[in-house]
Amino acid sequence: MDPLRSSFNPNKHLKEEFVSNLTGSSIVEIVSLSTIVPALIVLRQYVCSKGLCDPLHAMKITSKKGKDGTIDCRNWRIYMSTLVIDFLCVVLPTLLFLTVLAEWTNICAICLMLLLLFCIGERLGSCSEKGSELAYSIRANVSAYRVSMMIVTCLCILAVDFKVYPRRYAKTETYGTGLMDLGVGSFVLANSLVSRQARNVSSMKWKTILQSTSPLIILGVGRLIFTSGVDYQVHVGEYGVHWNFFFTLAGVSLLTSLINIHSRYCGILGLSILIGYQLCLSSGLNEFLLSNERANNLFSQNKEGVVSMFGYWGMYLVGVQLGNFLFFGNNQRTRIRVWVFAVIFWVSTIILDRHVERVSRRMCNLTYVIFVLAQNFQVLAILVLSDFVPGRKASVIEEAFDRNLLGSFLLANMMTGLINMNVDTISSSSVTALAILVGYAFILSILSGFAAFSGIKLKFW
């Protein structure tokens, strides 16, 4: 290897081994981790509804900039102070539970849920106009769900490179339920629940198709060029040699656009694809995908990424019908339905994992798809409890991330790359790692807040 090239990332192979051959954690621990973040978000909304620790409570910012184009300093200071409080209440505790407090996850999840239920009960008991105060907001719940997913994702993609992050939370090699295994599946599902198809506004125009897929292809090619150019660590068993997360999203978007059907039939088609794909896996396709042998052609080099698209496509189609049924139809019973689906999906995950095939993110098998549905619907189920908090309102940090989900994710990826290229993450002590992670999370939150306050929104389609 060329000395100049290798100097960019001298610990590449060590870092690749650091995230390889992992088996994940238990389903119980995943349930606990999936409880903590939404509970923190709802508790913060409760605090905001009470006007506690909320500098914006008595002041609604209606103008982002002055007449001369500059940000109003008084509003800016209040906004940023509120953002910092939100960071301390939501992001920082999440980071701690993912690192130094990982062994206390189960106990803390129970305590947070008990506290949340107590707060809701207290708030309802003191409300004289219960019927009119329980304003139901589908958009707010879905936005909070997408934000919670993004916060955890942004924290994990850097934390996984440090020893302070438990190895059981990282992506599994073949089978297992690691927290980070949920990442790409959650992105696909989150997009499907609020997609154009779910809202019945899909279009077969080639312009629309290109607008939805070309940015993802460009990002995928850009990531490939960057990782190759600086010799950045890439776990080949994850997607393949050249494939990456953005190509999977682009492929799913392209397939869904080309085979365009009404949302009410998407679930049937998606489930048919998932069952057919699982039958192929059980007939021997899984052995091919999990084998380390690769022929000298693009398909074999990227077999995991290419073949697993059938699983993600089926998941997307199922998500489209669920989104249409829950969020764009009769919304009166949505809260109950979300809880029922969460329970059904978790029970189904356990049954499939034991009697069909274990969860495998690498192949995106049927069990993995149901696992993703179960975890995401659990998060949604906890977030809809905020409807029982009269006068609740989204926190500033929720609004900041929600306005720029794609921008926040890309910024987190760039910061992660820069830190990895300049810090020996594997050898860093727990104190050093935690300091870097807190600084990274704080900067990411501040920059996301600045973009939201300034009206900056990164969106290609």
From TrEMBL:
Compartment list: Membrane
InterPro entries (UniProt xref): PIGW/GWT1
Superkingdom assignment: Eukaryota
One GO cellular component, as annotated: membrane
Parts of the chain that traverse the membrane: 20-43, 78-98, 104-121, 142-162, 174-194, 206-226, 241-261, 268-290, 310-329, 368-389, 431-453
Swiss-Prot/TrEMBL keywords: Membrane, Transmembrane, Transmembrane helix
GO molecular function: glucosaminyl-phosphatidylinositol O-acyltransferase activity
A biological-process GO annotation: protein localization to plasma membrane
Membrane topology: Multi-pass membrane protein
Principal localisation: membrane
Record-given protein name: GPI-anchored wall transfer protein
Organism: Papaver nudicaule (Iceland poppy)
